[in-house]
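This section describes the prediction task in plain terms. A model, or a person checking by hand, is given the sequence of a single protein chain and must write out its three-dimensional structure as a string of tokens. No templates, partner chains or ligands are provided. The sample shown here is typical of the held-out split.
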Amino acid sequence: MKLLKSIVLLVLFAITILFSAPKFPEQNNSRVVDNAGLFNAYQRIDLEKRLAAHETNTSNQVVVVTLNSLEGYDIADYGYQLGRHWGIGQKDKNNGVLLIVAPNERKVRIEVGYGLEGVLPDATANSIIQYEILPFFKTGNYYDGVNSGIKSILEAIKGEYKPASSDNKDLPMGLLLFPLLFIALMFIGAISNAQGSKKRIVPAVVSGGIAGVVSWMMFFILGLSVFLTIAVFLLTLLGSSSSGNGSNYYSSGSDSSSSDFGGFSGGGFSGGGGSFGGGGASGSW
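The expected answer:
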């Protein structure tokens, strides 16, 4: 009786998992799966050619997929499961990347395979989404957003992408306001010290201004150096950490994550079986 109960529970559990799994779109041996109909024929061919050329040169498999619906799933959960189901990337390298766009939910995600998490860490993927993709998506220009995102992803994989967040415009406001406040205090001090002697006001203001400008430049350069040092440290730490975790995770479960589409054929899209573990970043608009 207990054995029968256990079997029934196992069957019910299996049915629950089966019916709760997302329904993934067909991959059809293409690097651009446009289920949402965001691209015209020329745009699809252009993206396909560029991704095929990248795979030929590097063996990395980068795939764009647009979805009509996430079926109620969080795009991060949907993304890594889709990457495993399709088996994007080579099985022995896990060098796949998925750019997922769900226009109806206004969500986008870059899903990164284990093998590329070192060169495309979460921070870089987030920067690409925020600065290279979303500005276009917010105006309804999906092709240019995807095109810009793909360009940046390929640059990041080659080590050539410069995150927009490292520009001066993204420095903390406090870093810029502090030198300005220091200059103001220098001027006030110069004018106060010059009271009682009109002849000393002009030289005091000039000398105070020069000292203020020099100090501002020194503080700005020092602050910028500290900021960039911290930023590079964090990016390197995140990249190495996620890459190491991914390798350990994959080594313990690689056999169970092979794809139903394990061997792609046609259109030069061969290989497959790569695995994903949630590395990447998401965004919305």
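For orientation: The longest helix spans residues 198-253.
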